[in-house]
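Input record (one chain):
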Amino acid sequence: MIVSQSEIDNMIQELVRQIQADERRFLRVVGIANGGLPVSKPLAVALDLPHESVRISHYDGQILRPVPIIEGRLSQSTDNLVVDDLIDEGWTYNTFDKHYGLEGNAVAVLFWNPISPKPDFYVEKKPAAWIVFPWEGNYEKNSIDAE
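The corresponding structure, as predicted from the sequence alone:
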């Protein structure tokens, strides 16, 4: 499934509406690199919040790593809006929780796979098809193949 930048922009606006309607107030947006950054940066701007990022990687290319790479520190451990592009099997979500902690924070994603922990904010349930985002290197090739 190829998701266009226009669709991403609409999904980010939906996240903004959900977050603004929520009673919680966040002090910053924390993007999980790499896939969460194209979502977290515009969210931070729309919500007028500072932006930070951390990196959690479970893959070495296409190969699953036995131990994830975790890089970055948070200036504050609570009142963060933690953002990623999706929660699929929950590995990144659970790694973030173990390393940084999710208590006192909230999670926002574009897509959520119901077999995984439910985020505080999401736009759509993840389809069965592989999602190709505009920021992935193979987006143009996959766009051409899909036509």
